[in-house]
Amino acid sequence: MVISDPKILSTSNGYINSLHHHATALTALSAIFPSAVMCLFFTDLFAAGLESHKIRRLYVHGTEKTGTWEDISDKLDIIINAQEKNISQLGEWDLGNMMRKRAA
Length: 104
Fold this sequence. Notes:
Oligomer: single chain
Number of domains: 2
Helix content: 25-40%
Low-confidence stretches: none
């Protein structure tokens, strides 16, 4: 797949996500469709008794106006802890305060 304009995939207020965000998103989308509905993609899972399935909803982050909100208050500390492991991008930046403000 050739993507000539990365802004087409993911923008938010003029900010373009980094390439590993694009790669992760494309991997997740590929696992959902068509892979999830075709048992031949994951023969080991099918052999273990898991069946193919069709995704009913897909939530994509990045829209400026959303109609869906999810309460993550009971998971926020876990999310922040995981994000803070990304030292190569964060350095000494205190991400927790910003994420708590956004989540509120």
